[in-house]
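User: Let's play a game. I give you a shape written as tokens, and you guess the letters that built it. Ready? Here's round one.
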């Protein structure tokens, strides 16, 4: 585990602003954020596994995917995706429906209850994150926000470049 506040011997680790060094430093923060995300939703009325949660978020972002597309988005096999959807459907969070122009294709559609669960989870996570950010100075929060926005732009640019090749 890395330590953000204890960088150790700068010579041994390399330049303090090198991407590899920063990546090691950030890994603790990411791990902590992941824990915060998980704990924040434990009090939700309906507890979902990480895979179920990810499936709902994917269906929310990309409505009417079919099972094959969902499996690809989640990087899981078709049988696993099918069982995952069976559970989500049984819980009333998504439903299967015939594609309007291709009856052989089945669309996966988020239900109102599924959207409500996602909203509840997002609200709980935002509350937990706001509480953690409240312990930071305003300038630190601003710097973090700017840094994360720059990270997202860089990541999107890298993904675009990799898709072009």
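Assistant: Ready! My guess for every position:
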């Amino acid at each position: 585990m890395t330590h953000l506040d204890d960088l150790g011997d700068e010579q041994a680790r390399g330049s303090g602003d090198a991407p590899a060094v920063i990546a090691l430093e950030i890994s603790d923060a990411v791990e902590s954020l992941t824990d915060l995300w998980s704990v924040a939703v434990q009090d939700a009325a309906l507890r979902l596994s990480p895979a179920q949660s990810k499936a709902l978020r994917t269906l929310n972002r990309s409505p009417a995917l079919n099972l094959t597309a969902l499996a690809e988005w989640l990087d899981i096999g078709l049988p696993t995706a099918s069982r995952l959807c069976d559970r989500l459907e049984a819980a009333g969070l998504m439903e299967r429906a015939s594609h309007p122009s291709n009856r052989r294709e089945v669309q996966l559609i988020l239900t109102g209850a599924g959207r409500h669960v996602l909203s509840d989870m997002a609200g709980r996570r935002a509350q937990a994150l706001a509480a953690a950010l409240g312990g930071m100075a305003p300038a630190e929060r601003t710097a973090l926000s700017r840094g994360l926005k720059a990270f997202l732009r860089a990541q999107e640019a890298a993904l675009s470049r990799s898709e072009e090749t």
